[in-house]
Amino acid sequence: MMKLKSLYTVLCLMVGVCTMSGCIEEYEASISSDDSRLLVVEGTICSADTNRFYLSRTQPLNSSDALRMITGAMVSVRGSDGSEYMTKANGNCYSCWIDHLNPDTEYYLHIEEDGEIYESEPQKPLPTEKIANISGEQNTPEGDIDILVTPGVPINPDKTNYYTWTYDETWEVHSDYTTFVYFDVEKMEKVDTIGLFPECGWKDARGTNILVGSSTNYDSQHIEKLKLYDIYRGDERILHKYSGLVRQRAISKAEYEYELARRQAGSEMGGLFTPLPSALPTNIHCLTSHKLVIGFVGCSLNTSEYRFFLYPHEFSIYRPYQGDARLWLEDCTEADCLRLVRAGMFLCEWRDERMMGGQLTTAWAFRYQLDVRMKGAYIEKPDYWD
Question: pTM for this structure?
Answer without folding.
Answer: 0.83
